[in-house]
């Protein structure tokens, strides 16, 4: 075996990583360089000959640093993006160094056992049925897909149809119902599964984007045959949590007459169940059939890791399993390949394991509680800025803001200008959206390190952007 010199390149990478991480709090949150600048800096012809790895890594780190967003900064509030913790980052480094194709337990018992133990810990932490099956996938998009594939399998099997063998041609129609503020990734999962995104029955929601139970009952009563109901634990703009126990009652009542599945997209909020304070908001979630969440959001693992959890192991297994004669015979141990839509795959549960072991339940709960508290503080402060308005009920960690034009002209244009000014300031980075047809600024507080000082600086930046600029 040829033994390369590992140390020079890894030492450069180690130093560059620490330089980045240890200077985060003094950095501008937004990148200094734009995409075109970055592209021009990188776009050289495909190299004919190589160069020493340490030089590649040093050049790479130096070149792209101006184009990096400080996404794990305490004042990064864009989309819904958690930071990364020391244990998670370090474990993820080892994932690359160990280079385990984590598909089967026989060739990689260590990585597979980590995945199995992490799955058990998650079920305990989130207080979901302990016999559920768990898949570690790239993100909530794929987690929604895996859960809905299991749902499709089960509701059709109960209607006498084997969708895995026979596909959808000639199958009984399956109706998907979701709140009108369902996340777009559920729509894409439904599309990939051949159930037709445009056929989703959109159930009206209340003012905080929560599915209305009375509206679900009405919509479901008009549906015949197999149905899949998609609830949500944290809406992308408002953080609104569907009344999950009431939705579960409605689904349970229907189960007696037709195959019905209850899925919860908990990409944003499900880790709230780790906290005794927040868990009551998610009460009833444990009665669902499947749950999607993201480790790279509120658990603050480095990208990427989504998690699919399914009560009905058989349906999950049937929808995802894969075997081939050139692979080891399946044994008693859990093989990751049986639960994911991937064959070869990285050991992405390693960072989840390390994060859970390093934080413990109390640490996970503390992050969730602190972020909600910081979101409340932010909302309170915004409420005191004349002309600024919090448009959502802050029930979780999302704050939706609109800023009125002091000239009394165009509030949408002013809100967008304020957003752009805050982003450009580099002090904080919220992202934007259109909510109920009106421009809004979204603050998503999902980072473990965000503290009161970050909130004070963010409020100053918002106030400046609103009153002093332009
Ligand atoms: C409710 C919800 N579901 C699904 C997703 C998709 O998550 P991912 O980007 O990890 O695929 C998001 C992303 O923000 C979300 O908010």
Structural commentary:
With 470 residues, the chain is α/β, with parallel strands linked by helices. The protein has 14 helices and 11 strands. It has a 7-stranded mixed β-sheet with strand order 1-7-6-5-4-2-3, sandwiched between helices. The chain has a 4-stranded antiparallel β-sheet with strand order 8-9-11-10. α13 crosses α14. It is globular. Bound molecules: pyridoxal-5'-phosphate (PLP). Pyridoxal-5'-phosphate (PLP) binds at residues 79-80, 139-141, 183, 185, 234, 236, 265, 267-268, 294, 306.
Topology:
Layout: H1 7-22, H2 35-42, H3 53-64, H4 86-98, H5 109-125, E1 133-137, H6 140-158, H7 163-166, E2 175-179, H8 184-192, E3 201-203, H9 213-221, E4 227-232, H10 244-255, E5 260-265, E6 290-294, E7 306-310, H11 313-320, H12 349-383, E8 388-390, E9 398-403, H13 411-425, E10 431-435, E11 438-444, H14 452-467
Helix pairs in contact: 1-3, 4-12, 5-12, 6-8, 6-11, 9-10, 12-14, 13-14
This protein binds pyridoxal-5'-phosphate.
Pyridoxal-5'-phosphate binds next to α6.
Features:
binds pyridoxal-5'-phosphate, 11 strands, 470 residues, 14 helices, 2 domains, Aspartate Aminotransferase, domain 2, alpha/beta
What is the helical fraction, as a range of percent?
40-55%
Mean pLDDT: 97
Distance between the termini: 64 Å
Stretches with pLDDT under 50, minimum 5 residues: none
Q: How is the largest sheet built, in terms of strand order?
A: 1-7-6-5-4-2-3
Into which percentage range does the β-strand content fall? 5-15%
**Distinct helical segment count:** 14
Class inferred from helices and paired strands: alpha/beta
- Main sheet makeup: 7 strands, mixed
- Output the helix-strand order: HHHHHEHHEHEHEHEEEHHEEHEEH
- Total DSSP E strands: 11
Whole-number tally of structural domains = 2
Ligands bound, unique: pyridoxal-5'-phosphate
The CATH topology of the largest domain, please? Aspartate Aminotransferase, domain 2
Tell me the name of the CATH homologous superfamily of the largest domain.
Type I PLP-dependent aspartate aminotransferase-like (Major domain)
């Amino acid at each position: 075996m040829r033994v390369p010199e590992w140390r020079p390149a890894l030492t450069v990478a180690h130093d560059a990583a620490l330089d980045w991480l240890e200077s985060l709090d003094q950095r501008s949150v937004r990148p200094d360089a734009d995409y075109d600048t970055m592209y021009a800096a990188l776009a050289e012809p495909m190299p004919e000959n190589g160069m020493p790895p340490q030089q590649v890594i040093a050049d790479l780190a130096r070149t792209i640093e101006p184009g990096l967003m400080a996404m794990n900064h305490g004042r990064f509030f864009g989309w819904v993006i958690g930071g990364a913790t020391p244990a998670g980052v370090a474990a993820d480094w080892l994932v690359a160094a160990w280079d385990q194709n984590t598909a089967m337990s026989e060739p990689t018992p260590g990585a597979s056992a980590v995945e199995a133990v992490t799955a058990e810990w998650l079920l305990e932490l989130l207080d979901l049925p302990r016999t559920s099956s768990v898949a570690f996938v790239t993100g909530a998009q794929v987690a929604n897909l895996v859960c809905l594939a299991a749902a499709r399998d089960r509701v059709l099997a109960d209607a006498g149809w084997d969708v895995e063998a026979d596909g959808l041609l000639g199958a009984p129609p399956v109706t998907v119902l979701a709140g009108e503020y369902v996340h777009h990734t559920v729509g894409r999962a439904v599309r990939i599964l051949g159930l037709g995104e445009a056929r989703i029955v959109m159930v009206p929601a209340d003012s905080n984007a929560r599915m209305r139970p009375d509206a679900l009952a009405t919509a479901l009563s008009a549906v015949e045959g197999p149905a899949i109901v998609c609830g949500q634990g944290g809406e992308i703009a408002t953080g609104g949590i569907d009344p999950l126990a009431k939705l579960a009652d409605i689904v349970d009542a229907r189960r007696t007459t037709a195959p019905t599945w209850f899925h919860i997209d908990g990409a944003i909020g499900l880790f709230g169940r780790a906290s005794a304070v927040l868990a009551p908001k998610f009460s009833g979630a444990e009665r669902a059939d499947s749950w999607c969440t993201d480790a790279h959001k509120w658990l603050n693992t480095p990208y990427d890791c989504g998690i699919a959890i399914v009560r009905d192991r058989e349906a999950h297994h049937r929808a995802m399993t894969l075997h081939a004669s050139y692979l080891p015979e399946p044994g008693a141990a859990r093989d990751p390949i049986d639960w994911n839509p991937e064959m070869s795959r990285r050991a992405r549960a390693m960072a989840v394991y390390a994060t859970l072991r390093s934080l413990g339940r109390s640490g996970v709960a503390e992050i969730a509680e602190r972020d909600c508290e910081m979101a409340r503080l932010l909302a309170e402060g915004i409420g005191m800025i004349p002309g600024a308005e919090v448009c959502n009920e802050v029930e979780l960690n999302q704050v939706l803001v609109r800023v009125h034009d002091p000239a009394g002209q165009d509030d949408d244009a002013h809100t967008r200008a304020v957003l752009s000014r805050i982003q450009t300031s580099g002090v904080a980075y919220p992202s934007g959206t259109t909510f109920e047809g009106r421009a809004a600024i979204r603050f998503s507080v999902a980072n473990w390190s965000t503290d009161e000082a970050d909130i004070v600086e963010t409020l100053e930046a918002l106030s400046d952007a609103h009153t002093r600029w332009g």
